[in-house]
Amino acid sequence: MRALRTLGAALTLCAAAWLTAAAPAAADGKDGTDGKDGKSGTEAPTEAGTGFRTATEIKPGQQATAAASTGDYLYWVFPAAAGQIPEVEAELKLPDASSRHGSATWQLDVYDGLRRHQPCASGTPARRAAQQDRTVTVSCTLRQVRSWSERWANDPLQGAYYVRLTVVDLPAQDLGLPIDAEVEASVRDAGGSHADGGDMTPLNPVLRAGTAPGTDSEPPDDDTASDSADDKGGEVPHAVAEPEDGWGSGWWSDRWVWTVIGAALAALAGVGGYTLTRGPRSPGRPPIRPGSDI
């Protein structure tokens, strides 16, 4: 009975520890969707930038649209935190086949905050559309975003990620034809099996204001702009806003579940081993005291 009571107490403590660890994680909803439906609650952008500095910011889960011309470079930017896997998908609605003169290859590229091209772990980043095709879809899934990396490595790090969409091969007569683009970026947690340690400043470039339209003013240099922002007490604008849950992956990981399960199994094995090795005791014979006569 004592062994059963000890085993029951051990299992109760393990269950309490697991529930205590799992409850905050369920409340946080750290899946890049703010615990809702994956939308940011704001209207999705309806235009795209033409370069890294003018890239249009989109939130994970938003479906951005843009009307452009064939041959344009379209840029968007979104945030990704450590421990997440970014996924980008773009769909292009092409002009009518009668106005085109052949097939074209469309390409989706993803760059990090240092403008380093990031290879796709899966997906189809480049696809050739035949002349009769009305739509073409390209996609790219990156590797897990890390919180730190060696200097020589090209690992994806937390911060801003730029999406570039363009055509790389087409008949010259088709340049300038109108197209409609739909882009959606999403992030999902990689899980504890991919967790790593370390900390690093997010790769989130600072935006510098340029010459305003209709004025002759010159853009301030980097030092002057930074000093003026600091003097006024305002925030320096960055490429993307920091996610609500921060850039880090947080303390919760599904490794906690396996740790608790392992602790419960270890407690069960310890109680069982003690019960087997103790052996039976004779209830009718008192234990022998040292120095007493047998």
From TrEMBL:
Transmembrane segments: none
Biased composition (Pro residues): 283-294
Keyword field: Signal
Residue ranges of coiled coil: none
UniProt keyword annotation of Signal present: yes
Bias (Basic and acidic residues): 28-40
Signal peptide: 1-27
Region Disordered: start-end pairs: 25-51, 189-247, 274-294
Record's protein name: Secreted protein
Native organism: Streptomyces rhizosphaericus
